[in-house]
Every structure is written in C-alpha cells, then in structure tokens.
Design goal:
Blueprint (H helix, E strand, L loop, with lengths): L18 E2 L2 E2 L19 H13 L3 H24 L4 E7 L5 E6 L3 H5 L5 H4 L2 E5 L4 H17 L4 E6 L4 E7 L3 H9 L9 E6 L4 E2 L8 E3 L4 E3 L3 E4 L4 E5 L7 E3 L2 E11 L2 E7 L7 E3 L6 E3 L2 E2 L10 E6 L3 E12 L11 E4 L19 E4 L2 E10 L2 E6 L8 E3 L3
Parallel strand pairs: 4-5, 7-8, 19-24
Antiparallel strand pairs: 1-2, 3-4, 6-7, 9-24, 10-11, 12-13, 12-26, 13-16, 14-15, 15-16, 17-18, 20-21, 20-23, 21-22, 22-25, 23-24, 24-25
Helix pairs in contact: 1-2
C-alpha cells in the first residue's frame, strides 16, 4: 500500500537564479510566458467544435450541437448505471455516418429507456440487446485481474461495451508462463474474456496554471489543473507517478499530497505564485478558463475529448472505455479512461513521454488528468478523483 504524503512547512533556498531582461529562465528552458492571462482563448468550446467539424466533415454549428448532445448522453449513462444496473450493459456515442447514441440492455431495453429519454435524445437513441450487464463485466474483469496478480502476471484490462466483453493485454514476455498456467489448469479464462499478447504494456508518460511545462532532476511533465484545499491553499496538479520534486521556471512547487494507486494517479503542489483557473491549450501559448468539471459517471464512451501535453500539444480523440486498469498503477481500480488516437492522419501519437499530468477537457470543462499510454490509446484519470488528494478544482 502506498502512503499518502503531506508536507506542510518547507523552506527552500534556490541556489541558482538566472534572468534575462528581467524574465526568469528555467534550467529546463521552459518557454511558457510568465503571464499568459492576456492570451485566453475567447471561446474554448468553439475551438474544440472547429476541430470536431474538420475531423467529421460537418459544419461548426452542427459540431456545437453534437458536443452538447454528448453531455446529455453522459448524463444518461450516469443515471442508467445507477438506477438500472441489473439490465444496463453500457452505452456509446457514434459520430459517423450519423450521430447517434447506442444503449445496451440485457432485457426489456425499449421499455426501460422510455423512463429516461429526454426530448433532445429521443430521435438519436438506438436500443440494442447484450448478453452481460456492465456491472457483470466489471466484476469479471476485477476477478480475473486478481487471478493474474496471484500468479504474478502483469496485464492491462478493460470492459469493452462495444463487444460486451473484457479485453486483457498480456506482454509477450509473459505469454509462455501464461500458457503453462492454462495447460496446468491453474488459471481459468472466462468465456467473456478476450486475451491479446502484445509487445508492450501500458506505461506512464513521464520522461501557475494547468498545462505548464514543469520539471525535476529526473523527469519532465505537464501541470494539470489549478486546485484548492479545504484551508484555501492553492496550487497545481501533476501525475502521481511523476517525481515529487517539481518546479516551473525558477519557481519551486511545494509537494503536498499524492495518490498513485487504486483510483488515482495524481499529486498536487502548492506555490507562492498567483494561481489562476486556466489551462494551456495549444503550443502557441493560448489558454482557456476552467469553470466546471465532469465526473467519470457522466463521461460517455464515444465522447469527443481533447488534451494538452508538453510533448504532443493539443490532441483529441474519442473515449474507447472508462473501465481501464493500466498495469503501471498499483492496485488499480477499473476506473481509468482510454482515448483512442482517432485521427492518426493528424496526430502521430495522441500522447507521449512528458505529457503526464496534462489536462483533458472539452470547452471550459475539466474531464481528467493525463496519466500514460496504452498502445495507441491515451490514458487519463477522471477529474472527480481529485478527492483522493483532498483538493477541489479551482473554477473561478
């Protein structure tokens, strides 16, 4: 069990201070402007919609409508998960050839959905039948994950609502041992589990306001969001797997608390600098205000979501699943979110080394904190798990 850390009083003397025409210069040569607030993106949702429109060959007005509809789909996902767990098998959003929401039930779906459909979703929702509920899939996933841990085989797992199954990636280096356990009858693979042998498992992307390039003596990463604790102390987040000693420019960030296991891959640092509810959203130093957050339960599979990281910049994709268990997170719960590199002709990679800790967002809403990569997918922790480190998102 990893232990949460808390540092309340820390006096640090900086030995090296460089300056050039009065502007501090980092030993990591960060190029972030000291005061980016004058370059705030006027309409962040419009910026996201313009990218969505380009990728899906629709008008910007249509893109804005669809981004609003995906919020409604996320709310439907949350309420069905809570109230219809006995028959609800998941949902997803489709963007082509037509925009629609697909909802799965194991029985009586057409009747059940009528209690929850809003006017805006009524004409774009399609009900289908599945064998297993989402709750059953997650239970199968969790038990099989525990079985693999018992025989010391690392694996990445998630429940796939598209195929109504559990997908498991096992490293090629462990494939012989895995097959031996199967042959000896020491491991039983449920029929709902699909095994893939891969060359590489998921990995963390390690190498004031969100999106700033921060660094330590051993890695470089990206700030996530501005946060505040119960006492009113403000600071910024980073990925929990990153080094605890971080600075931006010549400004030391004071490590406060972290959670790198279970539901979380998150830490936060207080600072004596002013803290704004901004995130960087492009390589040209534009920023956007963060004024709200969206919990994991309201993030629908298939949703369009963007991120910023110091290495790959502003990229975007569609949510593949929200039940991932990346192997690099100790005792990982099935709550991490995978985002597909949906537009490889635009982005060689959706995320890479150095992006860890960066923000995931739509418009002015925080969706999560970047954690790592899982093959071609980006991995992030949903924003509601800031509670694991006892802080709240700064939204004003």
């Amino acid at each position: 069990m990893l232990i949460k850390h808390r540092i309340t009083n820390l006096a640090i003397t900086l030995l090296l201070v460089f300056s050039f025409i009065g502007v501090p210069i980092s030993v990591y040569a960060n190029e972030d402007p000291i005061n980016p607030s004058e370059e705030v993106t006027e309409n962040p949702l419009l910026k996201d919609a313009e990218l969505y429109a380009k990728l899906n060959e629709v008008s910007v007005d249509e893109a804005l409508i669809r981004l609003d509809l995906q919020n409604a789909a996320g709310e439907l996902d949350a309420i069905l998960t809570e109230k219809e767990a006995d028959t609800f098998a998941g949902l997803w959003i489709e963007h082509t050839p037509d925009f629609k929401v697909v909802v799965l039930f194991t029985k009586d779906g057409d009747m059940t959905i009528q209690k929850y459909l809003t006017e805006e979703l009524a004409n774009i929702t399609e009900v289908r039948t599945a064998e297993k509920t989402l709750a059953e899939l997650i239970n199968i996933q969790t038990k099989f994950s525990d079985s693999l841990k018992d025989i010391d085989i690392a694996a990445d797992l998630y429940s796939d609502v598209y195929e109504n199954c559990v997908k498991v990636n096992i490293a090629n280096s462990d494939s012989s041992r895995f097959n031996d356990y199967l042959t000896q009858g020491k491991l039983i693979v449920p029929e709902e589990v699909i095994i893939s042998i891969v060359d590489e498992l998921s990995k963390p992307n390690t190498t004031t306001y969100g999106g700033l390039h921060i660094g330590s003596l051993v890695d470089e990463s990206t700030c996530g969001f501005a946060v505040e604790d119960a006492s009113g102390n403000k600071g910024v987040t980073a990925a929990g797997h990153c080094n605890n000693s971080q600075w931006w420019g010549i400004n030391w960030l004071v490590f406060e608390e972290e959670e790198w296991e279970g539901y979380g891959d998150i830490q936060w640092h207080s600072t004596n600098m002013d803290v704004d509810n901004l995130i960087r959203d492009s390589s040209s130093y534009t920023t956007r205000e963060i004024t709200s957050s969206k919990s994991r339960s309201q993030q629908a599979v298939g949703s369009f979501v963007g991120k910023y990281g110091r290495t790959t910049g502003y990229t975007a994709g569609y949510i593949e699943c929200k039940t991932a268990q990346p192997t690099y997170v100790p005792n990982c719960e099935p709550t991490f979110i995978l985002v597909e590199n949906s537009f490889p002709y635009l982005y060689d990679k959706i995320a890479d080394t150095g992006d860890s800790g960066g923000p995931w967002f739509v418009g002015n809403t925080a969706w999560g904190t970047h954690s790592g990569t899982y093959g071609e997918y980006g991995v992030y922790m949903a924003i509601n798990y800031l509670s694991e480190i006892n802080v709240t998102l700064l939204t004003d």
